[in-house]
Amino acid sequence: MALDPTRVTPAEAGFAMPAEWAPHAATWLTWPQNESDFPGKLDAVRWAMADFIAKLSRGERVRLLAGSERAGQQARSYLTRAGAALHRIDWIRHRTDRGWMRDCGPVFVTRSKGAPRRAIVDLHFNGWAKYPDWRRDHRVPAMAAAQLGLPRFDARWNGRPFVTEGGGIEVNGAGTLLSTEECYLDPKTQVRNPGFTRRDYEAAWRAWLGATNVFWLTRGIAGDDTHGHIDDLCRFTGPRTLVLVREQNPRDPNYRPLEENWERIADLRLEDGSKPEVIALPMPAPVIFNGQRLPASYANFYIANHAVFVPTFNDPNDRAALGVLSELFRGRPVIGIHALDLIWGLGTLHCLSQQEPRA
């Protein structure tokens, strides 16, 4: 029987969101075009993005969105000089409002039986319930489903669109999903789904992403424009292992919130009832630009097929963070990507990327 995504949820059809380390068919990215995202630094950001794409294209395909022919030609120029594998880049003409593919891009779910094996869940990006210009970004999942010929599930709950950003959730591919109370349960600030309760979110993530076990941390890091995204805070590195950032300076604004998360994580049990191994990941010193604290975090790494890419900040803790992650990803080299320019846009490598799993 053919799959009808209007009649069943992904979970009912046997789909679930795989872990980021599952084999990729490609990585989705957007070529930086919005000056307001990186005021005064757009050219530097393009070079940083070209470096990231060049290293990424050595191990997997890249599906790169560019809003115009001119933007595509510009991207080719930068990527050629950066040494990217251009034959592994698919050029997609689609105009976006911003470039944060983690939050607006296609969220993929997979299943082991039945055809098709992959589908896309449209989680209704709305500019983090903060910015008015998000409608072009909102159309990315539908465009991707058409581009790949995949079914698209229209995530809804309580009779209306269900909003979740990819950076606001973290999964281990075995049923456990992590998020933060600050991001989705704050009743006043950047409210994605007005009136939703903790129970609503957990039920919706079960239905649309196949999550059988949801755990909530408390708050995110200082400077986070998304109001508490988990991908700057806590990440799975394996089905039973995760890293959680920790601040050593008691005078830093991050110190108390992160200690609260360390207290909370002691209660985490995985989908089988066991305790995971939790490893401390250091924080860089505060990154300040133009008087603004930026959300610099080593937890915003991206797991590709052939490597793990980690943002670095010209900080003494760069080496320590790369060392911690190298011990956890023994099968993949851990590569630092200079991110001091990227973070001016209030995000780095994980925020910019969205993985497309293989069937």
Rounded to an integer in angstroms, the radius of gyration calculated over CA atoms is: 19 Å
Can you tell me the CATH superfamily? Answer: L-arginine/glycine Amidinotransferase, Chain A
Q: What is the N-to-C succession of helices and strands?
A: EHEHEHEEHHEEEEEHHEEEHEEEEEHEHE
- The parts where pLDDT drops under 50 for at least 5 residues are none
Strand order, biggest sheet? 3-2-1-20
Form type: globular
Helical fraction equals 10-25%
Please tell me the total number of domains: 1
Distance between the termini: 19 Å
Class by alpha and beta content: alpha/beta
Layout of secondary structure:
Layout lengths: L23 E7 L11 H15 L4 E6 L2 H14 L6 E5 L7 H4 L2 E4 L7 E5 L12 H4 L1 H9 L3 E3 L1 E2 L2 E2 L8 E2 L4 E5 H4 L13 H12 L3 E5 L16 E5 L2 E6 L8 H11 L11 E6 L4 E3 L2 E3 L7 E2 L4 E5 L4 H12 L5 E5 L10 H4 L1 E4 L2
Parallel strand pairs: 1-2, 2-3, 5-6, 10-11, 13-14, 18-19
Antiparallel strand pairs: 1-20, 4-5, 7-8, 9-10, 12-13, 15-16, 17-18
Helix pairs in contact: 1-2
